[in-house]
Amino acid sequence: MSVLTILLVVVVVIGIFLIVIYNRLVALRQKRLNAFSDIDVQLKQRYDLIPNLVETVKAYAKHEDKVFMQVTEARASAMKSRDDGIEGRAAAESVLGAAMMQLMAVAENYPELKANENFKQLQTELSDLENKIAAARRFFNNATSELNTAIQQFPAVLFAASLGFKNEVFFELSEAEAEAVQKAPDVNF
Q1: I want to staple 97 with a disulfide (CB 3.0 to 4.6 A). Which of 87, 110, 120, 177 is the partner?
Q2: CA end-to-end span of the chain, whole Å?
Q3: CB 140 within 8 A of CB 36
Q4: Among 18-22, 39-43, 171-175, where is mean pLDDT lowest?
Q5: Could you tell me if 168 and 30 are in contact, meaning their C-beta atoms sit under 8 angstroms apart?
Q6: Burial of 160 (0-12, 13-18, 19+ CB in 10 A)
């Protein structure tokens, strides 16, 4: 009877242990999904802002049709990528980010556009949104790192795969976006 009791206690302890591991991994996965939702909210605001920005620039830079088309197509592609998972979404957002950098470069060639109050306001809103997106990405990547670390730590590593958990991908900048962020702005007096 005592062997049976010991065996039962061991099974109960292992069961409780698995429940604790599973619940922790579920909580971390939910935190990561919530962080991605925060990115999604910021991206939707950017999608809404882009047409206004493009129309404002179009009024001054009528012969820049190629850039306008690239921004419009990249925006449409990014909006459609919502069902492509995080990797597909990150790739589409990288293309949109590069197109937006081209649009802003075009705007630099038109001093009267840069002086336009509507453009200044839109540019400020875009800059604010980009900062919020960057912060949301950092939070998402931190949540992803926490989940991946928990999955790889002992003893969860023994059970994580069988419980349906795997290492997740980060939401990273494309090479073009990373270069643009690292490039120091030109200051002329």
Answers
A1: 177
A2: 89
A3: yes
A4: 171-175
A5: no
A6: buried
Candidates 57, 72, 51, 70; CA nearest to 119 is 57
157, 158, 160, 164 alpha-carbon torsion, rounded to 10°: 140
Architecture of domain 2-182: Up-down Bundle (1.20)
Grouping H, G, I as helix, E, B as strand and the rest as coil, residue 121 is helix
pLDDT tens figures, 44-61: 999 999 998 888 888 888
Identify the DSSP state of 107.
H
What pTM, to 2 d.p., does this model score? Answer: 0.77
pLDDT at position 58, please?
Answer: 83
Query: Cβ(174)–Cβ(182) under 8 Å?
Result: no
Q: Which of 55, 185, 45 is nearest to 128 (CA)?
A: 45
pLDDT of residue 187: 38
Give the model's pLDDT for residue 174.
59
> Which residue shows structure tokens 């206004």?
52
At 186 the pLDDT is 46
CA distance 157 to 149: 10
* Sequence spans of domains, the chain: 2-182
